[in-house]
Amino acid sequence: xxxxxxxxxxxxxxxxxxxxxxxxxxxxxxxxxxxxxxxxxxxxxxxxxxxxxxxxxxxxxxxxxxxxxxxxxxxxxxxxxxxxxxxxxxxxxxxxxxxxxxxxxxxxxxxxxxxxxxxxxxxxxxxxx
Length: 129
Prior knowledge:
129 residues, alpha+beta, Alpha-D-Glucose-1,6-Bisphosphate, Chain A, domain 4, 7 strands, disordered N terminus
């Protein structure tokens, strides 16, 4: 019983320090998040319609095959360098949107985080021009 009480007291004294470190680390990466090893989420300061049109054009230019897209849901899929890349655009505000990029390879069985990162960086670079 003493050991349990001692563990509770020690963990309670360390908890505020852990929260401060977690809050400081989370504040640095507010505009770009990695949800999974292959999913990148980026908040953009542009109109979602403009971002959606740029995304479709970008994927069509970089894919050797036809791309699939759904204008209502704003989801597009393309086969780029043997990876299946999925891009989703969501409206946050009048001039703000959120772009989610994920990639899988080998018949959608393995996560391809490197490809998702490359596509995210190239799309953001194109949208900021």
